[in-house]
Input
Amino acid sequence: MKWTLSQLQKYRSKGLSIDETINVDGIKEVDSSIRRVSPMHITGRTDIDSKKVTFHFKIQGHLVLPCSRTLVDVDYPINVETTETFLLNVSEYETGEEEVHQVKGDVIDVLPIIEEILLLEVPMQVFCEDITEEGAPQSGRDWEVIHEQVQTEKVDPRLAGLAKFFENE
Output
């Protein structure tokens, strides 16, 4: 997803529509927890004027991440909307509060920015829906994983007498 400035200036009056599917497998090298990346569908438009180019993107696809509890593959959907602005001449434009990018040379490459956005979308923890899937063990000698929906209250038999202590007579 690269455009030269001269290519973009041709769309100055009417704008450029974007509808592409790109491969962003490079993010697996940056974040080793990402197991697979589906091709990302990028849609959007551009606003082009003499001082800046603004891209309005919608990024859709899936990442396959390990479940934090069982280590099985979890399909994590990506659906992100973002606006990225590239300044054509930095000295003539005051940035204010918005984050902007500088154009390096005569080419605008948005792929590194899309990769960065996807890396920011990776959650710290992700859990699979089906807890019966194969993966990390769910119990062992003297331990078991307690799931919120399965949690039951067990009283240690040695403390059973204390449970009756606060009962009203």
Summary: The chain is about 15% helix and 35% strand. The longest strand covers residues 52-66. Residues 111-121 form the longest helix (11 residues). Strands lie at 2-4, 17-22, 36-37, 40-48, 52-66, 73-87, 100-102, 107-109, 139-140, 143-144.
